Amino acid sequence: xxxxxxxxxxxxxxxxxxxxxxxxxxxxxxxxxxxxxxxxxxxxxxxxxxxxxxxxxxxxxxxxxxxxxxxxxxxxxxxxxxxxxxxxxxxxxxxxxxxxxxxxxxxxxxxxxxxxxxxxxxxxxxxxxxxxxxxxxxxxxxxxxxxxxxxxxxxxxxxxxxxxxxxxxxxxxxxxxxxxxxxxxxxxxxxxxxxxxxxxxxxxxxxxxxxxxxxxxxxxxxxxxxxxxxxxxxxxxxxxxxxxxxxxxxxxxxxxxxxxxxxxxxxxxxxxxxxx
Length: 276
What we know:
alpha/beta, disordered C terminus
C-alpha cells in the first residue's frame, strides 16, 4: 500500500498560478465588431453627426449594432412628468418625443453643426393591472415591485423610439419626425422565492430601471419567458429603430429633392403606372 501511495506523489511541484496563467491558459480570440449593415439609410449617416438622446450604455451598445457606434451621447434633461393615468402606449411615446425634441432644439444651432439624426427612446414596465411602474425608490419599494411582477399573470414592456432630422425644405416645421413603439410580454417565474427577490434587491442592479430588474443581467434569473423582442426589454428594439431611421432618411431625401412625402409617393406611383 505504501508503494502505491508513493506513485501518486508528483515528481515535481506544480507550477505557480502566475506561471500557469502565462503558459497553459488558452486565451480566446478577441473578435472585433461585426461589419455594419450595408443599407442606404445607414450608409448615408456614416461620418455625420448622430445623437443618441440617452445616457443608457445599453442603448448605446444596441445602436452600435446598426453601425451607429459613433453616435454622440447627449442625455435629455426633459422632465418626465406626464400623468401616469395616460394609456401606457401614449405615455411612453409622448415621453420619448419630449426627449427627442428637447435635444433637437438644443443642438440644431450648435457650434458642432446641426445633427443629421437625433434618436430618443423611453421604456416603461406595465403591471398586469395596467399600472405604469417607475424605478424603485427604496428596498421596501423595490421588493414590493418585484413581488407584483412575480405574482401577476404577466407584465408588458413598452419602448418608444423617436427619430428627428432637419429638412432642407423651409416648409414648417422644418424637421422630419418618425416614431415607433414595441411591446414585449414578460412572464416572471412563479417559483421565484421571496429570498431570491431579496437577494436580487441587494445586488442593486435594478435600482435605475423601470420595473426594478435588468433582463440582460442577473435579473434574468427571475424570468421564465418572454413574448416579443428581447432588445425591447433591454431598452432599444433594433427592428423598430431601423424602421424609424429608414423612414426619416426617406423624408430627408425627398426634402432635398424639393418634394414632400406625398409628392414623392405620387411620383413613384406614376412611374409604376407608366411602366405598366
